[in-house]
């Protein structure tokens, strides 16, 4: 196993000719794909890994400077694909990992066949001509809450993000992975994500993009999916699902998994 594979807890399942890479979002780890993986392993080679900073990775490996931009994470993705000798993969990115995939695909388009983006946003802060869903003071309050009592913040944030009460299995699962993060790392990652502006990158994307979004999402207004569709450089398609929450693959698998499998299997032109 290579250095990147070991650091990111890389797992390779299945043995198909086509490789599907599953990349998780903030506060989760590769376990967020547990409902999807069984539907892929018969047909595809499936690559799972953990983003640096997630609770399952070694916090000593987290470089605060490297991961102050999404480019640091994109270099990790490229390193993993190179170590596994993957070319032309189908990259499924949730939340921030969708934008990480955007950056990686611009740097090395040969490694990607297409991007499947779930709950993706190029910018969370509102601008005069752009609605990302958050004002500056809201983000400052969020970061202050994380700093003052991380456990209490996790308990409040998890049901809001997932779109359910604390008794739901999906909320409990997200609460667990979120709380597994080291608090200072979680704060740094959240600041990197919420202050990022990936809009200038979108026009440089050349691989096809499948944009999948919940109808109601605390973190990503549904209009953002249309913004992505209009601004990515390559071919794109949007599907808005009748689901709620930022982690629909965890909270509404019966609806979401068939949608994801369809977008993984079929290209836009079909």
UniProtKB/TrEMBL annotation:
Keywords: Hydrolase. Signal peptide: none annotated. Residues 19-252 form the AB hydrolase-1 domain. GO terms for molecular function: hydrolase activity. Pfam families: Abhydrolase_1 (PF00561). The keyword Hydrolase applies. Belongs to the AB hydrolase superfamily. This is AB hydrolase-1 domain-containing protein.
């Amino acid at each position: 196993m290579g250095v990147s594979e070991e650091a990111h807890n890389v797992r390779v399942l299945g043995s198909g000719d086509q490789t599907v890479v599953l990349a998780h979002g903030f506060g989760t780890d590769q376990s967020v794909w547990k409902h999807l993986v069984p539907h892929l392993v018969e047909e595809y080679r499936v690559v799972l890994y953990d983003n640096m900073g997630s609770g399952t990775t070694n916090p000593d490996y987290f470089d605060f400077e490297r991961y102050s931009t999404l480019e640091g994470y994109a270099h990790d993705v490229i390193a993993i694909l190179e170590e596994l000798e993957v070319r032309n993969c189908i990259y499924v990115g949730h939340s921030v990992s969708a934008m990480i995939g955007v950056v990686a695909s611009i740097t090395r388009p040969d490694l990607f066949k297409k991007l499947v983006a779930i709950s993706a946003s190029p910018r969370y802060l509102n601008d005069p001509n752009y609605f990302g869903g958050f004002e500056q003071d809201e983000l400052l309050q969020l970061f202050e809450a994380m700093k003052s009592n991380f456990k209490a913040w996790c308990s409040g944030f998890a049901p809001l993000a997932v779109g359910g009460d604390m008794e739901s299995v999906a909320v409990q699962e997200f609460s667990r992975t979120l709380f597994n993060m080291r608090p200072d790392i979680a704060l740094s990652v959240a600041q990197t994500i919420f202050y990022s502006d990936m809009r200038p990158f979108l026009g440089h994307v050349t691989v096809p993009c499948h944009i999948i979004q919940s109808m109601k999402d605390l973190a990503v207004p549904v209009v953002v999916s249309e913004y992505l569709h209009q601004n990515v450089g390559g071919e794109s398609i949007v599907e808005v699902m009748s689901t709620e929450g930022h982690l629909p693959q965890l909270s509404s698998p019966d609806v979401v998994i068939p949608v994801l499998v369809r977008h993984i299997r079929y290209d836009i032109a079909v």
